[in-house]
Amino acid sequence: xxxxxxxxxxxxxxxxxxxxxxxxxxxxxxxxxxxxxxxxxxxxxxxxxxxxxxxxxxxxxxxxxxxxxxxxxxxxxxxxxxxxxxxxxxxxxxxxxxxxxxxxxxxxxxxxxxxxxxxxxxxxxxxxxxxxxxxxxxxxxxxxxxxxxxxxxxxxxxxxxxxxxxxxxxxxxxxxxxxxxxxxxxxxxxxxxxxxxxxxxxxxxxxxxxxxxxxxxxxxxxxxxxxxxxxxxxxxxxxxxxxxxxxxxxxxxxxxxxxxxxxxxxxxxxxxxxxxxxxxxxxxxxxxxxxxxxxxxxxxxxxxxxxxxxxxxxxxxxxxxxxxxxxxxxxxxxxxxxxxxxxxxxxxxxxxxxxxxxxxxxxxxxxxxxxxxxxxxxxxxxxxxxxxxxxxxxxxxxxxxxxxxxxxxxxxxxxxxxxxxxxxxxxxxxxxxxxxxxxxxxxxxxxxxxxxxxxxxxxxxxxxxxxxxxxxxxxxxxxxxxxxxxxxxxxxxxxxxxxxxxxxxxxxxxxxxxxxxxxxxxxxxxxxxxxxxxxxxxxxxxxxxxxxxxxxxxxxxxxxxxxxxxxxxxxxxxxxxxxxxxxxxxxxxxxxxxxxxxxxxxxxxxxxxxxxxxxxxxxxxxxxxxxxxxxxxxxxxxxxxxxxxxxxxxxxxxxxxxxxxxxxxxxxxxxxxxxxxxxxxxxxxxxxxxxxxxxxxxxxxxxxxxxxxxxxxxxxxxxxxxxxxxxxxxxxxxxxxxxxxxxxxxxxxxxxxxxxxxxxxxxxxxxxxxxxxxxxxxxxxxxxxxxxxxxxxxxxxxxxxxxxxxxxxxxxxxxxxxxxxxxxxxxxxxxxxxxxxxxxxxxxxxxxxxxxxxxxxxxxxxxxxxxxxxxxxxxxx
Length: 877
Hints:
Low-confidence stretches: none
Shape: globular
Number of helices: 26
Strand order of the largest sheet: 6-5-14-16
Mean pLDDT: 92
Structural class: alpha/beta
Helix content: 40-55%
């Protein structure tokens, strides 16, 4: 029989098995059952995968491997995101290092260079996905900017335009002066900043009075076209309709009344700049105000700013305040903290400005997308995200889909230069349909990256063509994604799926956890607390990382990740390896089928088979309900705590000493079956080590590889509930005796005697005595009616009391002295922990994990003290 290496090294097996699986076509949909489909959330090609990706990919792969073993026709479709603004920024930075700009290259050459960069970095992303063990079907790999997606994008754009759901208009938008493009509200990241609130006096046109306004943006006053007050504000009712003189500009502007104005902000009177503030824009529409733009697309003051033309926003602000002060119109300046929008890519402060952009009318499209979530055709896990989704969709705004970039899907709109006809077409037009001119110019903008991503579930399957894949695999089954893109992506996929497929794009949406560092802080470059998943794989192996992430992935809870936890599960991988190595060394080579004689089963055999059934039930239920942590915890506890720590130890006397060949081979058959099914249960979590080990098992296999083999089923013939209960009682006895031996430092080689008072239990059978003697180091077992003198309590229960007889085994006086010292220390530990936990400053300022650790230490100290005092009372009794 082949023998496992003495030590487990993941580097030796992970690359080998991934290549074999891929070469064998195991990643392709080959099952005969109902399709189970996941389309991968396409990673951004501009960056290495981070630990959030590691978690997201691991959970998807666990579900895919589980469903594949369940016999489903599984497809996990991979792909990458072209990431418009992010990719263009990176390529522009590379050009800058060469002393060039994108304008030096021109649009065509820049796009060509970006494609080369994208192809290279797509390869890097694919290699990283492979290293994690993801069983995606690489033959179907897609890219959000590939030709198939471009065809789908054009068809959707034209269809929505023809239905009046895409339009072009001049609206106030979030403008990034650095990237020179519009951003959606979701792409703006708000940061609290300390600034000032400036109070300016605007003189009344008639009379000597003035109206004081408060503003955080003095430079935009040059574009003011009104001052607004709340109609219910008694202080200003007499001024509504009056005219003011705008300082510096000397333009007449009206005082208007609008419910938007907050009476408590500043003086209750606000300047209105419709061209540079989204709320002012709405007031400008309502009151038919003039729109005066004073800042250009580069964040520079324009010709409407008069003498301030050509200045930056910062410099113009300074100069305007100085001039207002010179005019004696500066009332006061206050310190002020407020939320300021920044570009999510380059961190530049956003400038709201008027711009011609393309929009999607979301209101009509949102109706079906709301309905399918309300009636649970699309379910969220955890369910609380359903409410978040619906609240956003109920208030959905029109979606600005145009971006002033070169990298992305070109907007399929052309303008006739001779007759101004607008041509919206799936195909590039050769001439104007109105005047016949060939002098056509395509719209220079590209589409928001999320536009193509919104079509991902059906476009990747071949739409708009009615391909076999589309007919078979749409709708998909599960989407695993982060909470931060529910609005960016999930909502838009549901919207587009309902509009163009008349069907939901997926049935289940699992919102995965946010990974934080061990202190609960968000991982970031500035804190330097990020953990690179690829480095983790190289150091500990993919299996250890995957299992760690799975067992920490409780629904609705963030993950505080400590690298030590990954090391712990590397030890688990070692445990699996060593347990298998022991098993293979003790299983006869000619056992080809793991069948056994049920009439010859030992008590421990019945217990482990019963527990195996329970493990299969628990792991299966967990994976079906996306409770990855409960499923992984179940198999971990079964394999380590029950199979390794108890079952393997309990069968050693049979394997090593039994004179009955039939009994020995029966136990070997049970050992082989439990090991085989355990590896199957572990495989979705730890695919590499389980595949390597499973190949070594001396049994006839239904498939060449474990990953395409059958998921274990509950065996009703292995329902040994009463026998399992008997063995659990024995475990309790043995555990109690082991605790006494450990506390009193009795060497394993020293046999001790026990005295038992049987209450609701009959005396131990010969088989039960064998287990107790072998697993607890017992010489003789005595039946008594009361606790013997000089004995230590191992167990007091409703069924049985067990006492370890110590005379002649230890020096009682010396042990009492040692115990007294340990009790003193235990009391000190309890007092120290209680002092900390009663200290309000500690509870207020200490990290949460430190407080939890202190609580755990307090609990452990109390248990230790109780146990030691029980031992001492035994000695004194």
